[in-house]
Amino acid sequence: MISPIRLLVSLAIVAAAGSVQSETAPSPYAGQQARDIKSLSDSDIKGLLEGSGAGYAKAAELNAYPGPAHVLELSTQLHLDVSQEAATRELLAAHKARARSLGAELVRAEREPDEIFSNRHADSAAVDRATQRIGLLQAQLRAEHLKTHLSQTALLSADQIRDYAVLRGYAPAARGAAPGDAAPPLTITNENPFHELPSIHPDLRRSVERLRGRCPWR
Question: N or C: which end of the chain has fewer CB within 10 A?
Fold first, then answer.
């Protein structure tokens, strides 16, 4: 029979071992010190260089402003006409070119903090310069994605916008109806200005107006 004192000593040893193990658990960052750019994974870099969305346009996508890539994926269900499909493809190509360019700049900018810290040249001024550059590029890249959703929405009808939301799982389909079926007209108000071009960069506005002009159904 184990004496109470021996049992208490055994429990104390087990508790101490568990405490030491928890204190010496590796950091979740372990292994990332080998990254080429410490703040970006390989998949992050790949996405930026390819102009991927990376969630930058969620504010638009989840508030009924479709994006061109998914509109093209759903072109049959959305009943895009020839002009709409051509305009959407042109919009996506132009967007991808801009997003890739900004993404490449952002990848280069993310190297700066690595370099100043690895070379022991970091100070407050250097950190400010590096992070402000990164912040500006992140803002420009996000704006690019969001503005592209604005441009795409201007190319679609209210029914297509509604069907897009249903097809993407953001809204329920009308009872007994499938996406693409005739639906009651969507009321367009100041809070729901699907057909109004918002305040955007003049070059982007001209591009959208030119693309919209190709859609004969307008």
Answer: N
Terminal-residue alpha carbon distance, the chain: 91
Q: Are 48 and 108 in contact (CB under 8 A)?
A: no
Question: Is residue 115 a contact partner of residue 39, using CB atoms and an 8 Å limit?
Answer: no
Among residues 57, 69, 84, the alpha carbon closest in space to that of 159 is found at 84
Least confident of 51-60, 100-109, 196-205: 196-205
Measured CA to CA, the distance from residue 135 to residue 101 in angstroms comes to 16
What CA–CA distance (Å, rounded) separates 19 from 9?
Answer: 15
Domain boundaries, the chain: 31-212
Confidence at 108, pLDDT banded by 50, 70, 90: very high
Does the pTM exceed 0.90?
no
Q: How far apart are CA 63 and CA 150, in angstroms?
A: 11
Three-state helix/strand/coil letters over 120-138: CCCCHHHHHHHHHHHHHHH
Residue 188 zone, left/alpha/beta (φ > 0; ψ -120 to 50; rest): beta
Rounded distance between C-alpha atoms, residue 183 and residue 185, angstroms? 6
* pLDDT, tens digit (0-9, with 9 covering 90-100), for 23-55: 678 899 999 999 999 999 999 999 999 999 889
* Structural contact between residues 92 and 48, judged by C-beta atoms closer than 8 angstroms: no
